[in-house]
């Protein structure tokens, strides 16, 4: 059975009583957040002010006001995902909306495509390299044609893509209201293990070893050698977890983006996302975004088998040596991501 179908079945059980309206919040002047109800599918929630791109329909029109009378299974699935986010934000309002105000710095993960009226919030370790490549093709105006010809390091150069924090407040408000906003998410602990493997087990990531590894070893390892304290190159997963749940860590500075929570990176309880893609249905969801943008005839999401990809089985192995106390504390850190994006509590967890 396809992952998307399984998800629909699971969400049907969870969301039978969820209203079809979505509560969105747009950044307004001086970054005050005002709630705004979005009507149900098949009605244009933006009225006549959604400007068409050179005579074509905008992605928001394609999504909320499709030409066909019957909604596709894909459209229904994404409506359910939006409802899941909205319902979680409402149910956990005290936790999810502690901050009433965002600053421009909070918008640095939102990549803007003016030509196709898209805003993509990138989440590290959720195919963001390939999606940044796609955004470079979409915004390059002919400079690029094949996303896989763009080197990975070039995709991560900030100057190659424009982010929402670079606009004025009125421009930000207009784009949040008129552009289609989307993000991609992943099972939180699988993403966490992927970040650990990439940043702490690869010899070439010396900058992470120096910046974070040395700090983690100093705090979490008794009788650490001088070499370990100096290089920070052999951080154990148990030490990484202890660092994440240590209250001193978040008081000191925000998490690095590679292990920061999605709700802290993209602020889905403040910004209404029109599409929530998932790593588990990456190709299907990505091509749906491209379809809505009107570019699917010449641009597809890059597909290739990555042999080093972190799997659920790998994640299970990494958590075997984590105490139930630390597992419980870590789950609390990422709880909103689990709930908001409909990920079940992993069967391997021993929560207290």
TrEMBL record:
Q: Does the keyword Chaperone apply?
A: no
Q: Has the keyword Ribosomal protein been applied to this entry?
A: no
Entry GO terms, CC:
Golgi membrane
Query: From its record, what is one biological process in GO terms?
Result: apoptotic process
Q: Which domain of life is it from?
A: Eukaryota
UniProt EC number: 2.8.2.-
EC top class named in words: transferase
* UniProt xrefs under InterPro entries: Carb_sulfotrans_8-10 (IPR018011), Sulfotransferase (IPR005331)
> What's one GO MF term for it?
chondroitin 4-sulfotransferase activity
What's its membrane topology?
A: Single-pass type II membrane protein
UniProt main location, coarse: Golgi
Keywords (A to Z) from UniProt: Carbohydrate metabolism, Glycoprotein, Golgi apparatus, Membrane, Signal-anchor, Transferase, Transmembrane, Transmembrane helix
Tell me where it resides: Golgi apparatus membrane
Give the family this protein belongs to, as stated in its UniProt record.
Answer: Belongs to the sulfotransferase 2 family.
Record's protein name:
Carbohydrate sulfotransferase
Instruction: Say which species the protein is native to.
Output: Dipodomys ordii
Q: What is the lineage of its organism?
A: Eukaryota, Metazoa, Chordata, Craniata, Vertebrata
């Amino acid at each position: 059975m396809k992952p998307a179908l399984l998800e629909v079945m699971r969400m049907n059980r969870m969301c039978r009583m969820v209203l079809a309206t979505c509560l969105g919040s747009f950044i307004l002047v001086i970054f005050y957040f005002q709630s705004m109800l979005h009507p149900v599918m098949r009605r244009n929630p933006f009225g006549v002010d959604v400007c068409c791109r050179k005579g074509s329909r905008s992605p928001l029109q394609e999504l909320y006001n499709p030409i066909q009378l019957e909604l596709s299974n894909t459209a229904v699935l994404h409506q359910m995902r939006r409802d899941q986010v909205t319902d979680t934000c409402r149910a956990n309002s005290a936790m999810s909306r502690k901050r009433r105000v965002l600053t421009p710095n909070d918008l640095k993960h939102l990549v803007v495509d003016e030509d196709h009226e898209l805003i993509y919030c990138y989440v590290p370790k959720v195919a963001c390299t390939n999606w940044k490549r796609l955004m470079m093709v979409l915004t390059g105006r002919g400079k690029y044609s094949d996303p896989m010809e763009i080197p990975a390091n070039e995709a991560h150069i900030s100057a190659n893509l424009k982010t929402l924090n670079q606009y004025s407040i009125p421009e930000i408000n207009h784009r949040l209201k008129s552009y289609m906003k989307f993000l991609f998410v992943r099972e939180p602990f699988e993403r966490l293990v992927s970040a650990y493997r990439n940043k702490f087990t690869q010899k070439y990531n010396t900058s992470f070893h120096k910046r974070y590894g040395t700090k983690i070893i100093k705090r979490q390892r008794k009788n650490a050698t001088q070499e370990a304290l100096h290089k920070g190159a052999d951080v154990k997963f148990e030490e990484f977890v202890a660092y994440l749940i240590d209250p001193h860590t978040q008081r000191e500075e925000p998490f690095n983006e590679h292990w920061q929570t999605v709700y802290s990176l993209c602020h889905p309880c403040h910004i209404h996302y029109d599409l929530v893609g998932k790593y588990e249905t990456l190709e299907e969801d990505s091509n749906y975004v491209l379809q809505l943008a009107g570019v699917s005839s010449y641009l597809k999401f890059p597909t290739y088998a990555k042999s080093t990809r972190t799997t659920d089985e790998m994640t299970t192995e990494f958590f075997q040596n984590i105490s139930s106390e630390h597992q419980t504390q870590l789950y609390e850190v990422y709880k909103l991501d689990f709930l908001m994006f409909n990920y079940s509590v992993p069967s391997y967890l021993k929560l207290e």
